[in-house]
Amino acid sequence: MKSIPNDSPVNIDYTNLRELDLNLLIALDVLITEASVTKAAERLNMSQSTMSYSLKRLRTILNDDILIRTSREMEVTPYARQISDRIRQILVEIQSTLLEKETFNPATAKETFKIAASDYVEATIGLSLIQQLTTQAPGIRIRISNLEKENVLDTLDDNRIDIVINPGLPIKSWHVEENLYREEFVCVFRDDNSVGELSLTDYLERPHILVSLRDDFQGYYDKILENQQQSRRIVWSTTHFMAVPFLIANSNCVALIPNRMAQQCAKAMNLKLLPPPIAIEGFTISMVWHQRNRNNLAHQWLRQQIVDAVKNI
């Protein structure tokens, strides 16, 4: 029986299908197998009269005798033999889809998952996640895709992405969201042992590097400064978080970056971390997926791995 893709247009005649219930399909399969009303009734533990009535209904619906009497025994009609394999496959698919529980073994699974995330998220949780995968699920592969906030949920809806990890996504009713962790911003600059604290004046005198997913030179902190009739001099704007520590380590610039990433880079790159001179609200990193994958065992396993990776940060 030819399988039909989920996204293929299929016209279903519900009116005619209502005449054919699952019990009749079961009876048809056993009648063809046994070529006997009596044996079919015994196999399904029902009376012979009930099985005879089922055969009568099948003959009417299919416009075929199904079983015909010969001089010695009952014989399956050519049409019934022709459809027997397809009927058996339909019953097998119903059983596997509705009655058999799906299983997922990460140790033997061969899966590829696609996650949309910024380089900051990848750097923050990636090490813990990759260690978990290589020890628990050597056949699992992860593809990290660029995070384009404007259309990332469309890729989720189109099944091109499995999970999006980012703060503040405009999710719809068919999306599922789980908060992973809370993040705060810190000021990062080269540590020359001359600065113990960062005043607003010192902060504004320095050239600034901005991380922005938009093609601009103004971030949320600039709006805060504007409300206090202040402004900063942004000399570099980038969409890449991970480039910033390298730029700062070799310049006199300052940047606001998430604390977890800053902590990872500070010691190796001789960077100084200090609170911003004017408080700025942090953000919550969330994991978002489409509701179609809510009960998918492989998907559930991956989501738990991400949660566990966050705990190990």
In short:
The protein has helices at residues 14-17, 22-34, 37-43, 48-62, 78-99, 119-136, 152-157, 200-205, 220-227, 243-249, 259-269, 297-311; strands spanning 67-69, 74-76, 111-117, 140-145, 163-166, 175-183, 185-190, 207-211, 233-238, 254-258, 271-274, 283-290.
Commentary on this structure:
42% of the residues lie in helices and 21% in strands. The protein contains twelve helices and twelve strands. The strands form three sheets. It has a five-stranded mixed β-sheet with strand order 4-3-5-12-6. Strands 9-8-10-7-11 form a five-stranded mixed β-sheet. A hairpin with a 4-residue loop joins strand 1 and strand 2. Helix 2 crosses helix 4 (48-62) and helix 6 (119-136) packs across helix 12. 21% of the residues are buried. The model is unreliable at 1-9 (pLDDT under 50).
What is the CATH architecture term of the largest domain? 3-Layer(aba) Sandwich
> What is the count of structural domains?
3
The coarse silhouette is rod-shaped
State the helix count.
Answer: 12
Helix content: 40-55%
Q: What structural class do you assign from the helix and strand content?
A: alpha/beta
The N- and C-terminal alpha carbons lie at a distance of: 50 Å
For the biggest β-sheet, the strand order reads: 4-3-5-12-6
Q: Any idea of the CATH class of the largest domain?
A: Alpha Beta
Average pLDDT: 88
CATH homology-level superfamily of the largest domain? Periplasmic binding protein-like II
> Strand percentage, roughly?
15-25%
Largest sheet: 5 strands, mixed
Weakly predicted, low-confidence segments:
1-9
CATH topology (fold) name of the largest domain: D-Maltodextrin-Binding Protein, domain 2
Rg, Å, rounded? 32 Å
Order of helices and strands: HHHHEEHEHEHEEEHEHEHEHEEH
Strands, count: 12
Keywords: DNA-binding, Transcription, Transcription regulation
Family: Belongs to the LysR transcriptional regulatory family.
Domain HTH lysR-type: 20-77
Pfam families: HTH_1, LysR_substrate
